[in-house]
């Protein structure tokens, strides 16, 4: 196994550290673990961080084999913090690549092999797999993404809701990878740091990708690496948890990445829109309070 010395540790060529965070994930783990055990590529370790689950999530991973290193937190520290725990372990263990991977996904036996070859072929700093909806296996959820700069770096999934075609068969330069399956060379973390734990969960991967873009790092879609995502299987698209963090962190994200005047304008637009929706529904829209909370946290964090 080829390796090279790099200061504090020995970097193992091609070694992947997979960071995944559990939070009562038991119902989706069987297929995730089966996908990992089927891999033809064997130069990888899975760093599992359990955020105080009350089900058998951690136990399932502990019994999955020696390739799985499980850390159990005493409380729910959030997706960003938990992922950072896994990233740090991977870097300390000499992994050349770190793969941020949701556990509500499934993938084929050659997934890691194709992903690493694509990263090497493109010399990518960050790579995104071609991701499909799990329940609509030929319909694309994300072929990477791009940012709408005029809308405060609003992220857009490329190819979303489109059926797979030859258009998506080639490696291509993109602006970001969703955090459900994001592979980064270790130099990315050395350059821009880790996930911002202020976000707790939601928007932390988008923030990471904006920072990478601003730093001049290159992201590629690696379409031969394919992922099937059980979108929102754990939190639910309409849960209060999802709504709070999605809205709060959008406000935080805008405050962090836009100039003061632009951020003020965008905050005003969103708050006005939510207030108008509340008037039409004859009740206060909860998103007004969620957005204001994001602005408050941004100020506390020093994000303008």
From TrEMBL:
The chain's coiled-coil residues are none
Glycosyltransferase 2-like domain boundaries? 20-192
Q: Name one GO molecular function term.
A: glycosyltransferase activity
- Spell out the InterPro entries in the cross-references: Glyco_trans_2-like (IPR001173), Nucleotide-diphossugar_trans (IPR029044)
Keywords assigned: Glycosyltransferase, Transferase
Keyword Membrane belongs to the record = no
Asked if the Swiss-Prot or TrEMBL record annotates the protein with the keyword Transcription, the reply is no
**Origin superkingdom:** Bacteria
Give the UniProt family note: Belongs to the glycosyltransferase 2 family.
Its name, as the record gives it, is Glycosyltransferase 2-like domain-containing protein
Organism from which the protein derives: Bryocella elongata
């Amino acid at each position: 196994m080829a390796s090279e010395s790099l200061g504090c540790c020995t970097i193992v060529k091609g070694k992947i550290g997979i960071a995944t965070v559990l939070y009562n994930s038991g119902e989706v783990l069987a297929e995730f673990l089966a996908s990992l055990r089927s891999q033809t590529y064997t130069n990888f370790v899975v760093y599992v961080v359990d955020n105080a689950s009350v089900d058998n999530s951690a136990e399932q991973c502990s019994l999955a084999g020696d390739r799985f290193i499980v850390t159990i937190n005493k409380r729910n520290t959030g997706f960003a913090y938990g992922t950072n725990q896994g990233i740090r372990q991977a870097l300390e263990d000499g992994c050349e690549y770190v793969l941020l991977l949701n556990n509500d996904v499934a993938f084929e036996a050659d997934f890691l092999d194709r992903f690493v070859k694509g990263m090497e072929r493109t010399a990518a700093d960050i790579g995104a797999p071609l991701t499909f909806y799990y329940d609509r296996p030929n319909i694309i959820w994300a072929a990477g993404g791009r940012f709408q700069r005029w809308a405060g770096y609003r992220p857009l999934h490329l190819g979303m809701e489109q059926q797979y075609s030859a258009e998506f068969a080639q490696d291509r330069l993109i602006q970001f990878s969703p955090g459900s399956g994001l592979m980064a060379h270790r130099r990315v973390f050395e350059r821009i740091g880790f996930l911002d734990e202020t976000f707790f969960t939601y928007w932390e991967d988008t923030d990471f990708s904006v920072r990478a873009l601003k730093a001049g790092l290159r992201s590629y879609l690696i379409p031969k690496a394919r992922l099937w995502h059980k979108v929102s299987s754990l939190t639910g698209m309409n849960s209060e948890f999802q709504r709070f963090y999605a809205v709060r962190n959008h406000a935080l994200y805008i405050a962090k990445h836009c100039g003061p005047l632009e951020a003020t304008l965008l905050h005003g637009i969103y708050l006005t829109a939510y207030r108008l929706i509340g008037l039409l529904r004859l009740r206060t829209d909860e998103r007004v309070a969620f957005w204001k909370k994001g602005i408050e946290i941004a100020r506390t964090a020093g994000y303008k």
